[in-house]
Amino acid sequence: MSANDLVTEDGTDTPRGASVVIVGGGVTGLSAGFWLAEAGIDVLVLERGKVGWEASGRNGGGCSHHHSPLFAEEQRLWPIMDDLLGYPTEFSPNRIRIALSAQQYELYSRAVVNARHQGFEVDELDARTVREMVPLAGDSAYAGHYYRFGGHANPHRTVQAFAWAIRDRGGRVRQHVTVTGFRTEGDRVTGVVTDRGTFGCDHLLIAGGPQTGRLAAELGVHIPMRSARAEMIVTEPLPLMPIGGIDGNGLYGRQTLRGNLAYGGGPHEWIETEFLPAGTRPTTPLAGNIARRLAQLLPKAAHARVIRSWAGVIENTPDGRPVLDRPAPWRNLTVGTMSGVGFGLSPASGRALMQLVRDGRCDFANIGSLRLDRFSALEPDWAELQGWLPGALASV
Ligand SMILES: Cc1cc2nc3c(=O)[nH]c(=O)nc-3n(C[C@H](O)[C@H](O)[C@H](O)COP(=O)(O)OP(=O)(O)OC[C@H]3O[C@@H](n4cnc5c(N)ncnc54)[C@H](O)[C@@H]3O)c2cc1C
Questions:
Q1: CA-to-CA distance for 234 and 313, rounded, in angstroms?
Q2: Confidence band (pLDDT; 50, 70, 90) for 8?
Q3: Where in the numbering of this chain does the Rhodanese domain appear (predicted)?
Q4: For 391, phi and psi rounded to 5 degrees?
Q5: Mean pLDDT of 181-187
Q6: Phi, psi of 222 (to 5 degrees)
Q7: If you placed Cys at 235, which of 14, 115, 304, 325 could pair as Cys (CB 3.0 to 4.6 Å)?
Q8: Which domains are seen in the chain, by residue range?
Q9: Within a 10 A sphere around the Cβ of 205, how many other Cβ atoms?
């Protein structure tokens, strides 16, 4: 029986299933949905809220994860995503990282070694050059690095672009549908149970962000994960700088096309995965910490008023790396969760997930290090050992 023949539970003629059903309308699920639809595969994305309402619409927009096996593909794809999707992402290339002390410079230089090792170009900047290249920087700058790679994009635009591009290719995105369980037959997942009835599937992709572990556990698949609550602030608009992706002082962020500085970083707070919406409101100490660090990083923006702030939940695996895998014993299950680096990698992670679903392997990157079996010897109390307990603070 094909997925679309599954009997509907609401009595309508609307097809209730798809060849591939994706749980989660964040940037990971939507990108996978886009690449699947692009490949001519019938795809349905189920999202319990609105697309991008969770971390995918609340993040810093940074696209510079040079330590990932998916990074080369991320770098290849971002500059062409607007053309591929048919909608703008506001991708802007390159980043500058400013160090405010010799100690910060030493720390940031370690990341530079890794980037250069992979063939990416980085220029060392003295304090004067930092101030020339970053008009909002000031006397606090000690030195910096100009990454001739990476960049940033607008998370809201990007999520929307993926969703529209799926629709344009005949795929479907259903919002306000909460997945509550799965139907199985032998070693196959045959249906996705939701608060709107059951949707049949030939293949299931779980891309539920921080909920991925909990959802996969319904199928007996253990993905070790913990969630952290992070915050961001947005200032009033300031004159546009030539390069909008400026990091440093423990912060990540970007200048929007309108001129606002949108920044996050500093301490994150470990929470239960099932932390619900009231918990995603910003708290003054975390937002205040970001504002203070931002004023130190960009002193000529210190006068700018903070006009918005929000919180989001970041998914984390024990080693900080994504999980992209087809876990046993299921013949038609794929899981994808990104461990805090999911926005920047999304063009590439979605393509890798599409290939895992369709072919069982990824042909453009070695993603063996992202398999789930790397955690097979993990201590049961790993989260306690790492200090990742609800209420504790994690610095980034
Ligand atoms: C403040 C902040 C700043 C960040 N900055 C950056 C950055 O600069 N660069 C970067 O690369 N990454 C950044 N990240 C991390 C990045 O946002 C995430 O890694 C990425 O968005 C994960 O995308 P996702 O689609 O896997 O998960 P999510 O965005 O969490 O999406 C998962 C979706 O699944 C849905 N879902 C869950 N359970 C169910 C269910 N039962 N039924 C139906 N739907 C369900 C959720 O509603 C959600 O929309 C940041 C995150 C935060 C919070």
A1: 18
A2: very low
A3: 24-62
A4: 100, -25
A5: 98
A6: -100, 115
A7: 304
A8: 3-60+156-225+319-386 (3.50.50.60), 92-152+226-316 (3.30.9.10)
A9: 28
The CA distance from 320 to 340, in Å, is 7
d(CA 179, CA 23) in angstroms, rounded, equals 7
For 91-176, where are the E strands, in sequence order?
A: 92-99, 122-126, 143-152, 172-174
Tokens coding 391 = 């209420």
- Which residues are near ligand 1 (CB < 6 Å)? 23-29, 46-49, 53-56, 58-62, 178-179, 207-211, 215, 230, 232, 252, 264, 312-314, 337-338, 340-344
Cα of 109 vs centre of ligand 1, distance in Å, is 29
Nearest of 132, 149, 148, 199 to residue 172 by alpha carbon:
199
Residue nearest to atom 51 of ligand 1 (CA): 59
Per-residue pLDDT of 276-291, as tens digits, reads: 544 556 666 888 899 9
**Closest ligand 1 atom number to CA of residue 29:** 25
- Residue 97: what are its φ and ψ, rounded to 5°? -115, 120
Span between the terminal Cα atoms of the chain, in Å: 49
Question: 140 φ, ψ to 5°?
Answer: -70, -15
pLDDT digits (tens, 9 = 90+) for 341-359: 999 999 999 999 999 999 9
Nearest Cα to Cα of residue 224 among 273, 291, 296, 163: 273
**Which pLDDT does position 15 carry in this prediction?**
58
3-state class (DSSP) for residue 367? coil
Contact 99, 143 (CB under 8 A): yes
Q: Is 39:354 a contact under the CB 8 Å cutoff?
A: yes
Ligand 1, atom 27: closest residue by C-alpha: 209
CB 73 within 8 A of CB 346: no
DSSP secondary structure string for all residues of 221-255: -----EEEEEEEEEEPP-PPPS---EEETTEEEEE
Q: What is the DSSP string of 30-67?
A: HHHHHHHHHTT--EEEE-SSSTT-SHHHHS--B---TT
- Measured CA distances, 89 to 138, 160, 165 (Å): 30, 9, 12
Nearest to 109 by CA among 127, 124, 94: 124
